[in-house]
């Protein structure tokens, strides 16, 4: 049976103001954010996570040179959030590699590429930061140990029954898998793309599979310069991304068809490295019509006085793949038509799931956290009941306005980029050429990805 704690706004046994279901990157950082919000000092929080508790200190004692194959590219906005909850410094000292350049090109367009450089904006130190997911979670969980007065964390636990209210007059009633009944003012679903909270809400969920898998792996690379560049090549089966982790180590996210992924996973390490280098360096015979269209665009850009700086793209050569670091994940799209119901809200992948090609998935979830925390604080300062309909609706409207255009744009890129049908190939090349040449477009894309 669950222990009792100091109850803020109710005297009910096993009452919490907020229950967060799911302690992944989003749930654990959300718990830190709410617990550190001085305006919510009297609010009790329970974090329920189905996986076992780990020794967080041991997780954070990383062996030099060893890297997990699960990494995320975090943007500037996420960095600010992690700084606010005091876990950025720990993360930075253990697992964080800055990306100062991003180079994007396509199959059949090697000399047509877009290079994003941190100097294009001058407002950030880096365009992105590559961190290991498990280190981020360990840093947040360790921080939560210092916040025990506000947050109780239950591992090896899940919600077995949900009794969600019809209106915001009533509390949420849940039962944990050990039989403990809990009542809460707000239930937050941070339990990922297959969210049980979302299922209990019964909201419409628009989703599809891309019929693609992402192979992840840790790679040894040969690079003459400092390894601060993220590379992405769009191939007909999907993009290959190399994310820098250390001077001679990068993380791979190779999107491809399920059959090809199966073959790639079955190869020996050496054959896999050969296949990867071939995919990175091989180019098809140029299509004359596509070349002509590119030349016309070049002339137009020159006439408009935004000349291109065409350069051959030379990615690093892969020299090895870390043993047993290869695995793969199915890719899909998902979006909940509603993020909220009376006294319930969805945050992170529970609300929206995107293709990893733009490195936005978890960043959108972190932006959800910032928004949720700020609307909760605002409505509490008005004296409104915690989790009132106005507050949750404001969160939903604000986040859907921001998330939906990004989800649509990423889905569109997934469908178009890398396609070898000449009109789509020309469209991709034109987008790469124009975005590389016009500084305002580049700035706009960088700022949008950072927010
Ligand atoms: C190959 C790949 C690469 C990616 N790269 C990037 C990137 O570079 N940048 C980026 O921004 N995003 C990236 N993403 C997306 C990112 O990984 C997700 O957006 C992120 O993991 C979502 O975090 P989350 O905490 O919302 O959900 P999850 O990571 O799914 O976490 C959910 C948590 O809830 C727990 N849980 C699940 N069900 C229950 C339950 N019933 N009860 C209790 N607990 C439960 C789970 O154990 C887990 O801890 C990538 C995704 C993939 C597949």
Automatic annotation (TrEMBL):
Species annotation: Parthenolecanium corni
Main location per the UniProt record: mitochondrion
FAD-binding domain residues: 324-370
Gene3D superfamilies reported for this sequence: FAD/NAD(P)-binding domain (3.50.50.60)
Segments passing through the bilayer: none
Gene: coq6
UniProt name for this protein: Ubiquinone biosynthesis monooxygenase COQ6, mitochondrial
EC numbers: 1.14.15.45, 1.14.15.46
Protein's job: FAD-dependent monooxygenase required for two non-consecutive steps during ubiquinone biosynthesis. Required for the C5-ring hydroxylation during ubiquinone biosynthesis by catalyzing the hydroxylation of 4-hydroxy-3-(all-trans-polyprenyl)benzoic acid to 3,4-dihydroxy-5-(all-trans-polyprenyl)benzoic acid. Also acts downstream of coq4, for the C1-hydroxylation during ubiquinone biosynthesis by catalyzing the hydroxylation of 2-methoxy-6-(all-trans-polyprenyl)phenol to 2-methoxy-6-(all-trans-polyprenyl)benzene-1,4-diol.
């Amino acid at each position: 049976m669950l222990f009792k704690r100091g109850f803020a706004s109710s005297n009910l046994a096993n009452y919490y103001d907020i229950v967060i279901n799911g302690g992944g990157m989003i749930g654990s950082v959300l718990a830190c954010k709410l617990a550190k919000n001085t305006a919510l000092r009297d609010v009790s929080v329970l974090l329920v996570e189905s996986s076992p508790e780990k020794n967080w200190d041991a997780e954070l004692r990383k062996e030099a040179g060893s890297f997990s194959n699960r990494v995320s590219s975090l943007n500037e906005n996420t960095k600010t959030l992690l700084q606010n909850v005091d876990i950025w410094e720990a993360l930075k000292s253990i697992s964080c590699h800055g990306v100062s350049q991003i180079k994007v090109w396509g199959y059949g367009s090697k000399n047509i590429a877009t290079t994003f450089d941190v100097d294009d904006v001058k407002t950030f130190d880096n365009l992105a930061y590559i961190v290991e997911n498990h280190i981020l979670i360990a840093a947040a969980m360790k921080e939560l140990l210092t916040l025990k007065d506000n947050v109780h964390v239950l591992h090896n636990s899940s919600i077995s029954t949900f009794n969600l209210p019809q209106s915001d007059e009533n509390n949420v009633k849940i039962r944990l898998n050990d039989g403990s009944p809990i009542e809460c003012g707000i239930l937050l679903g941070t339990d990922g793309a297959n969210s049980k909270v979302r299922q209990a809400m019964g909201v419409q969920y628009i989703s599809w599979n891309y019929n693609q898998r992402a192979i992840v792996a840790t790679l040894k690379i040969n690079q003459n310069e400092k390894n601060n560049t993220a590379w992405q090549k769009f191939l007909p089966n999907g993009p290959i991304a190399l994310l820098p982790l250390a001077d001679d180590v990068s993380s791979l996210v190779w999107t491809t068809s399920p059959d090809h992924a199966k073959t790639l996973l079955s190869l020996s390490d050496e054959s896999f490295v050969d296949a990867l280098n071939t995919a990175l360096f091989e180019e098809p015979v140029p299509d004359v019509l596509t070349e002509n269209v590119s030349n016309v665009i070049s002339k137009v850009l020159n006439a408009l006085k935004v000349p291109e700086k065409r350069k051959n793209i030379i990615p690093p050569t892969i020299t090895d793949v870390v043993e047993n670091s290869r695995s793969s994940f199915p890719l899909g799209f998902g979006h909940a038509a509603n993020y909220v119901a009376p006294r319930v809200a969805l945050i992170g992948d529970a609300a929206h799931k995107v293709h990893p090609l733009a490195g936005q998935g978890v960043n959108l979830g972190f932006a959800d956290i910032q928004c949720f925390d700020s609307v909760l604080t605002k409505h509490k300062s008005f004296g409104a009941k915690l989790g009132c309909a106005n507050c949750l609706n404001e969160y939903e409207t604000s986040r859907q306005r921001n998330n939906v255009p990004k989800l649509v744009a990423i889905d569109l890129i997934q469908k178009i980029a890398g396609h070898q049908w000449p009109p789509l190939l020309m469209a991709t090349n034109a987008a790469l050429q124009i975005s590389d040449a016009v500084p305002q477009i580049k700035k706009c894309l960088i700022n949008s990805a950072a927010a």
